[in-house]
Specification:
The protein is an all-alpha fold and 457 residues long.
Length: 457
């Protein structure tokens, strides 16, 4: 059930909102169980076979948390985290590790076609955040219903944002429709939903048509011209931003409709003046997770420069692996790790750089490394790079209009969240967004309805 599908927009969402309003008004004590139930219906619509996995994941982790609170044995939390990562590894990385093992002469590891449960990376990381903070004495005990909602809340269960327990749990006991600003929050949630849909449908999906055929041709072994390589690389650079930030806008908007504020995930990342700045603006909740639960755990910047650089590189390489079970993802993460290490050394040396130069270098670096992220093989990535650097034919017919529009919106800003929260309550604004929503619906009906890129992670 895609957010940009008719079944979601005209069946699930209206029924969910109406039921939620009735329960919140007449039986507020049923509100949280209802949201949990709706979340499992939403998740089960994709593939009901994975609902028991999500249920078991929630129940087992919650029971371990209760056991830890009674015994104070930190080993229980360690075992839980290891088991969570093991389950993730089985579903997502089994064949990846089998391929690596097969590189050893004489060793032939078995491979299995294991379906990847949607959202498993995201709800696994939610478990890890809570359990780690629980062991550190930062997180309190929550009942099973609240914990289940924290893990499975349907706007963010499939592709984030990654939400820390401290950002959401205190909101669950509110009466959202009794707030003085309830109508305003609901209206802004609708505007965010429409804005995210528009970003996805009008820009992200259009750019997919620019980039996908060329990357597929490169992965299939075909030569790529310079024009095609630049079109595909620029197209994907902006496609992934509008696709993922569009999803995030929809998730934030949907959560607001149900009275919950989720954290922002993007802050005009293509306006960054350094790679460090980029990761403070891109997929912000993942960046915070990697910093707080991996980089610092590996030593951070507390144990000398050498260990800091090693921790930074390892964090980004593992972050790349989290994105996908392939060496191209590891290479993408490692490249960003090296880039961030260079930035650390640059700052340690007391050097500076004009913002315009920093922006240009950062954008080019990010754009070039997206090739590794998008290509499914190193051979395909190499053909794109050969085209980018003019090692093949020049080609013709560069499709630039959607890229130019995307570049303007992505670099000038503001984010949809910032814009919509600045809009005054005016009737013409509501009418304009209603018209935009109708146009989006026509577009959804006419064209292929692409899944969100981050659903595969």
């Amino acid at each position: 059930m895609l957010f940009n599908s008719f079944i979601f927009l005209f069946a699930f969402l209206p029924v969910a909102l109406l039921t939620h309003w009735l329960v919140e008004r007449f039986r507020p004590e049923w509100r949280l169980p209802l949201l949990v139930g709706l979340s499992f219906v939403f998740y089960g619509y994709w593939d009901w076979r994975f609902v028991p996995l999500l249920l078991a994941s929630i129940l087992v982790n919650w029971l371990i948390a209760q056991a830890f609170l009674k015994s104070k044995r930190g080993g229980l939390v360690t075992i839980a985290i290891v088991v969570n990562l093991a389950v993730l590894a089985i579903f997502k990385y089994f064949n990846f590790f089998a391929d690596l093992a097969s590189l050893i002469p004489g060793l032939h590891a078995p491979k299995y076609d294991i379906a990847l449960p949607l959202g498993i990376s995201f709800f696994t990381f939610h478990h890890i955040m809570y359990l780690t903070d629980l062991r550190a004495g930062k997180a309190p005990r929550y009942d099973l219903v609240r914990y289940a909602l924290y893990i499975a809340f349907f706007p963010q269960v499939l592709a984030g944002p990654l939400v820390r327990w401290s950002e959401i749990m205190h909101q669950l006991d509110e009466r959202p429709y009794q707030r003085h600003d309830a109508a305003e929050r609901f209206a802004r949630g609708l505007l965010l939903l429409v804005a995210g849909l528009a970003k996805k449908v009008f820009i992200g999906d259009q750019l997919a048509e620019y980039a996908n055929p060329i990357f597929q041709a490169a992965d299939a072994g075909k030569a790529v011209t310079m024009i095609e390589a630049w079109q595909a690389t620029l197209g994907f650079t902006f496609q992934i931003y509008f696709d993922f930030s569009g999803y995030t806008d929809m998730a934030l908007g949907l959560a607001l409709l149900f009275g919950i504020v989720l954290p922002q995930n993007f802050d005009v990342p293509y306006r960054s003046v350094s790679l460090q700045d980029f990761w403070r603006r891109w997929h912000m909740t993942l960046s915070r997770f990697l910093r707080d639960y991996l980089y610092i755990a590996l030593g951070g910047n507390r144990r000398g420069l050498v260990l800091q650089l090693a921790a930074l590189f390892a964090t980004m390489a593992l972050g790349g692996l989290w994105h996908g079970a392939g060496l191209t993802f590891v290479a993408w993460g490692a490249a960003h790790g090296l880039g961030l290490c260079v930035g650390v050394l640059w700052r340690k040396a007391g050097l500076s750089m004009p913002n315009l130069v920093g922006w240009a270098l950062t954008f080019v670096f990010v754009m070039l490394t997206w090739v590794l992220f998008r290509a499914t093989t190193f051979e395909g990535a190499l053909r794109i790079y050969e085209g980018l650097f003019g090692l093949g034919a020049v080609g013709a017919s560069f499709k630039w209009r959607a890229i130019a529009l995307a570049a303007a919106v992505a670099t000038i800003g503001p984010t949809a969240w910032a814009l919509i929260h600045k809009l005054p309550p005016r009737r013409w604004i509501a009418v304009s967004f209603a018209i935009l929503f109708v146009i989006v619906l026509f577009k959804i009906g006419d064209d292929a309805n692409y899944e969100f890129i981050y659903f595969q992670f």
